[in-house]
Amino acid sequence: xxxxxxxxxxxxxxxxxxxxxxxxxxxxxxxxxxxxxxxxxxxxxxxxxxxxxxxxxxxxxxxxxxxxxxxxxxxxxxxxxxxxxxxxxxxxxxxxxxxxxxxxxxxxxxxxxxxxxxxxxxxxxxxxxxxxxxxxxxxxxxxxxxxxxxxxxxxxxxxxxxxxx
Amino acid sequence: xxxxxxxxxxxxxxxxxxxxxxxxxxxxxxxxxxxxxxxxxxxxxxxxxxxxxxxxxxxxxxxxxxxxxxxxxxxxxxxxxxxxxxxxxxxxxxxxxxxxxxxxxxxxxxxxxxxxxxxxxxxxxxxxxxxxxxxxxxxxxxxxxxxxxxxxxxxxxxxxxxxxxxxxxxxxxxxxxxxxxxxxxxxxxxxxxxxxxxxxxxxxxxxxxxxxxxxxxxxxxxxxxxxxxxxxxxxxxxxxxxxxxxxxxxxxxxxxxxxxxxxxxxxxxxxxxxxxx
Lengths: 165, 277
Known about the structure:
The structure holds two protein chains of two kinds.
Chain A: E1 3-9, E2 12-18, H1 25-32, E3 51-54, E4 57-60, E5 73-75, H2 88-95, H3 105-118, H4 125-131, H5 142-164
Parallel strand pairs in A: 1-5
Antiparallel strand pairs in A: 1-2, 3-4, 3-5
Helix pairs in contact in A: 2-5
Chain B: E1 2-3, H1 8-15, E2 20-23, H2 29-35, E3 41-44, E4 54-57, E5 60-64, H3 69-74, H4 82-88, H5 94-99, H6 102-108, H7 115-121, E6 125-130, E7 133-138, H8 139-142, E8 143-145, E9 148-149, E10 156-163, E11 168-174, E12 185-194, E13 197-206, E14 213-214, H9 216-222, H10 230-235, H11 252-272
Parallel strand pairs in B: 1-3, 2-3
Antiparallel strand pairs in B: 4-5, 5-10, 6-7, 6-10, 8-9, 11-12, 12-13, 13-14
């Protein structure tokens, strides 16, 4: 039996009919909505490659049934940049070599965006490592990732202060 | 079919027909779905407002069943419940904590469920709604074995109930790496202290028996102990209630060796200072 949902994906309203209610958000994004930036790693919540934001919170899209998301707001890696201007976290990952092969990178970046929004890690390296521990990097680019998150946090904090002034 | 009820009554009505699988965070359900036959009917409980939230009334903390670990970690709770919050920080990853729920953790009934020792050390009870109304039973009675609970057909866990009180809690998890790992063993302790001595202690151990266990004999010995007494008391603690097994994560011997040391560290941490960052 099919089921209809309406949700916002990267700012665009989408009405979707799900023929199989067991489809995950990850498969919906990649196979139905032409948004393959979100990666399928382990497909069971152990690697974080599929991390997206649902209503602003980081979740593993491989563990989220699309059918449960009626009315939700979803942000994927494709929704971060504004035109040619990269999101500060994307820019920081480039500048700090926060990746090698790049497969885990969309998940790392979405997780970092979520972490910075949560606001309790600041630029403390230990807290960032704990907060990013749901995202594995088999190339072990962790040092660059931590530095990128620290740098992006500082830039975004400074930008927020400037905007408020 | 997936149902998304918005009230407990609607959810219970859906449960009247047998065979439905309850879904909250889904972090345990989905990996299992892919390996087996899909259930005909699933009921998503995350839209039932009564099942979410943390409140103190009449000396009891009520944590709604669909409350996520992130909700628990972020809540303003007394030091007594610090062990539960520390356990929440170690459930999977932040992504898992944002979705996974406290009732899901106990209903999944994994011997390695991080929430269970913390809840047991707090004397948590399980509130269950069913066709006959509400019933409440202690968590250690609710959990009957690996993947086995006392939940009957048609019933839903609606809340965890935790007596409020003084004292401080702590939680320590041993895994093969620091984060995102299934526990080799974990300990939760709640201690009350007067004049530098323990006046009341609760200690629970997980992943070393089919269901997490309280160390009641050790708890009795800890009464009257000072911090200096803890290592020796824990080193000769009676662990006969535990039955650690050898699995992919550790050997039974390793678990047996690790537990007394972990218990001592956890009790000492609980005695020292508030420590929820």
